[in-house]
Design a protein that fits this description.
This protein is an alpha/beta fold and about 280 residues long. About 40% of the residues lie in helices and about 25% in strands. It contains 9 helices and 7 strands, in the order ααβαβαββαβααβααβ. Strands 3-2-1-4-5-7-6 form a 7-stranded mixed sheet, with helices on both faces. Helix 3 links the parallel strand 1 and strand 2. Helix 8 runs antiparallel to helix 9. The longest helix has 16 residues.
Length: about 280
């Protein structure tokens, strides 16, 4: 059986189960910053409109990180049942619980530690399972989808939102325009960079019918905006992944920050949301 703890690659976001505190602090800062950005706010609004939840659904935020999605749902939805939020990192789960308490929604969310490949919850427990930037970091996306299928009630729905990180690019003044450093970013920050291209097939093969999808492009042209909060994380996470030295990472980020200050910045990535309904 696949387990996230078996992961041995360089993706630092895939190793939060045993990451050091410096790495976890950097990851948490990025998760929170992008969660507050209007791009993510629009994405959440879009799939919440499609879900059209009543007050009776049971919801699982799988791979919750710091609980950005669970907290957003708790504020937007008048749901009778407590939202369940699960992540493999005890550190991020504890942070999520603290933030939920600070934001006044702790009574609406249960934060738990668990591996998305094998969740200790009964079959048919949930009406909706949300995976917001989870599948790009897991060992085996198919296993995680089958676990979601098991956890869902008949006719339940799964929401998968993630990046197509093969399209991620940060332009630089290098002769290759940043192609080489883009490859290093792909190795260090994502395990399944093409997973969203496979979602129609993955849904079909793992017990779901594709019902809805939407495509997005997160592009900063001239000055860093959505991608601005990623830059400080590179100083920590690229050396932790072993793809750059600390000096190389700092020089790389310095150049990107100067490009933004001078109106010369460019970074972009495609993102997709897919919603599937459980097949009986």
């Amino acid at each position: 059986m696949s387990k996230q703890a078996d992961f041995t690659g360089r993706d630092v976001y895939a190793r939060t189960f045993d990451a050091d505190e410096v790495s976890l602090a950097s990851i948490a800062a990025r998760l929170e910053a992008r969660g507050r950005h209007r791009f993510f706010d629009q994405v959440i609004n879009d799939y919440m409109d499609v879900l059209a939840l009543s007050r009776n659904e049971s919801i699982l935020d799988l791979g919750c990180g710091t609980g950005v999605i669970a907290r957003a749902l708790a504020k937007r939805c008048d749901i009778k049942e407590r939202i369940t939020a699960i992540d493999i990192s005890a550190h991020l789960v504890e942070m999520g619980a603290r933030l939920a308490s600070k934001e006044g929604v702790a009574d609406k969310i249960d934060f738990l530690v668990g591996d998305a490949h094998s969740i200790v919850e009964p079959q048919g427990r949930f009406d909706v399972v949300i995976m917001h930037t989870l599948l790009s970091h897991v060992v085996d996306p198919a296993t995680v989808l089958r676990e979601a299928q098991r956890l869902l009630r008949p006719d339940g729905r799964v929401v998968v939102f993630d990046g197509d990180f093969e399209s991620l690019t940060y332009a630089t003044d290098a002769p290759d325009g940043g192609a080489g450093t883009d490859r290093l970013l792909g190795v260090s920050g994502h395990t399944q960079g093409r997973v969203m291209r496979m979602m129609p097939r993955q849904f079909n093969e793992n017990g779901f019918r594709l019902e809805w999808s939407r495509a997005y492009v997160a592009a900063d042209i001239g000055r860093a905006d959505f991608w601005a909060s990623s830059l400080p994380t590179f100083r920590t996470l690229l050396p932790k992944a072993g793809v750059m030295s600390e000096q190389e990472a700092n020089e790389y980020v310095d150049k990107l920050e100067r490009a933004s200050a001078n109106g010369q910045f460019f970074a972009s990535c495609n993102f997709y949301t897919t919603i599937g309904r459980r097949l009986d």
